[in-house]
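Running co-folding for adenosine monophosphate.
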Amino acid sequence: MDILVVLENNNGAIHRMSLEAIVAAQKLADEQNLSNAILAIGADSNALANAAAHYDTGEVLTAEHNLLSVYNSDGYAAALRQVIDQEKPSYVFFGHTYMVRDYVPKISAQLQRPFLCDVISLKTNDGLSFAKQAFNAKLAADLGVASEGTILVSFQSAAFNADLISSGSAEIREVAVELDEGMIKTTAEEPFQEEAGGVDLTAAEIIISVGRGIGKEENLPIAEALAQAIGGEISSSRPVVDSGWLPSFRQIGSSGQTVSPKLYFALGISGAIQHVVGMKGSKNIVAINKDAEAPIFELADYGVVGDLLEIVPKLTEAILAAKN
Amino acid sequence: MKLCVLVKQVPGSESALRIASGNTWVEDAAALFEMNESDNYALEEALQIKESLGNDSEVVVVSMGPERVQKVIREALSKGADRGIHINEIPEIKSDPFATAQVFANVIKVENFDLIFSGLQSDDVGSGQTGVILGEMLGMATATLVMATEVQEGSIKVKRELESGWFQWVSMSTPASITIQSGINQPRYPSLKGIMGAKKKEMKVVDLSTAVTIEKQQSFANIYLPIADKKTEMIEGNVDQMVSRLVDVLKTEIKVL
Ligand SMILES: Cc1cc2nc3c(=O)[nH]c(=O)nc-3n(C[C@H](O)[C@H](O)[C@H](O)COP(=O)(O)OP(=O)(O)OC[C@H]3O[C@@H](n4cnc5c(N)ncnc54)[C@H](O)[C@@H]3O)c2cc1C
Ligand SMILES: Nc1ncnc2c1ncn2[C@@H]1O[C@H](COP(=O)(O)O)[C@@H](O)[C@H]1O
């Protein structure tokens, strides 16, 4: 087997980022004439496998065991490792989800094989190579792999477009995995959601989002005045919440809310992927950042290079004047 | 309890990044270094656990890199860590989490730590793997993206962050290696007394470059500026000109005024 895509279960359905990984596998299989397969692990694996069997893939595998009914990193790593030992794929593809971050490095350690993570692109022009972001997305890196054997690869959210998935029909085959309780070092409780706060940012038409570039808590009124002038909600990147300047329900990103307003103002936000996944669907993105090289400008529709502490108050004034 | 914290020195968010010749890393001379953000939270968590447990606990800070990384070790010592280990840089493996973990495993296995704390991701390499691989190599339980800890005799319970505002409590016996998410606590600043006291604390320097075989798995083969694919209108001019163009955009293009 050449490429094996591992599915993640998202409330009984295939995680969107797993679909993106299937698209990556289909593209690579096409271009290099390789075989591919899809694997569903653990609870609901039959339901997931049935759904996956409608995609263009060589076959669909399932690996199930009662010790996998609740996600745990040791059990998942052991099960997938056994599948890899049996099937010997050259590449194992994943979406770069929080779960993948949690258990796939274990397989890398056990197999002594590289885990190329958070990959943004796959290049086939001159052999096969993968690229990732580095230095907080300010640079990109083509990754070199030192030796022959299975390579584990996870793809960044939206590196591939799930809408481009090709359909087909595939057989389902069960792979036996042997686990025992002694392998599992952790006990997990049921997932829970922390109580949400007072505002529904997903309904906001205009969002003024502040990042670490706001400098200090005392500067927040500068952004709040703009929000008031233009009729928007305040949100922020993670460090602003981490510092205790805003409550966590105002955080946008992979661990916060996902929004797609008509207008998203990014003030002093660098544009890290974990923030971007929460706001890239915005219809119009305006970024103000003093660093012309900040990655947010790769995404913005309108960019202003400058000091937000100077520009935003003047903008607020001009907006108020324009409205009168 | 013996607690270990992996603390990495990385170019800070305001640092200039100039690609060094060879195109595999950035120039040290141009960069402004600081403690990796999530490592600072990891250190704080370890210090708080030590303080809650009382005096026979120890926090040992470990960092790998060139001599300059002793600065972040000292910073950690001045916040209350007990001693430091500086592992000399092995340049060929600095973008390889597996080989990095292998070096750490070699150096710290004799310490028999109960808990290893690391950041969930480094700001330069950004693999988010080192702490998990290290734990696995040392036969420890592991957990990632930790947002709270409760330590008991022989075990630890951690609150893990899942996607989109979900969480999960996970318990495990020690020894364990856990990776800390930013925001778990409010990191302290070193006190003047701490800074003075840190000078007297032990800092061991270890050189492993010839002592062990390291299996390199991956590396940055070529680094470059990202290629933008979206067309962005950069609004230029002095502040007044930029503001007036912005108002124009809001009025006539985005139509929100
Ligand atoms: C698993 C995981 C989950 C995460 N979840 C989230 C999440 O949900 N949401 C999130 O936002 N992040 C999340 N992060 C963190 C993320 O990786 C970034 O660290 C974070 O988004 C950076 O926030 P920032 O852009 O505000 O800060 P920085 O990256 O520090 O950027 C600050 C920016 O402000 C600019 N600036 C500074 N001063 C000024 C000024 N006076 N005027 C104008 N510009 C200025 C700087 O040039 C810089 O670009 C997560 C990370 C991980 C690893
Ligand atoms: N050279 C290093 N020195 C100290 N700690 C490190 C080093 N490399 C990685 N780490 C630790 O491992 C974490 C994850 O790094 P990474 O796997 O590179 O994303 C960091 O946040 C640090 O806690």
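Result summary
Chain A touches chain B through 89 residues (CB under 8 Å).
Residues 3-183 of chain A form a domain with the Rossmann fold fold (CATH 3.40.50.620).
Job closed.
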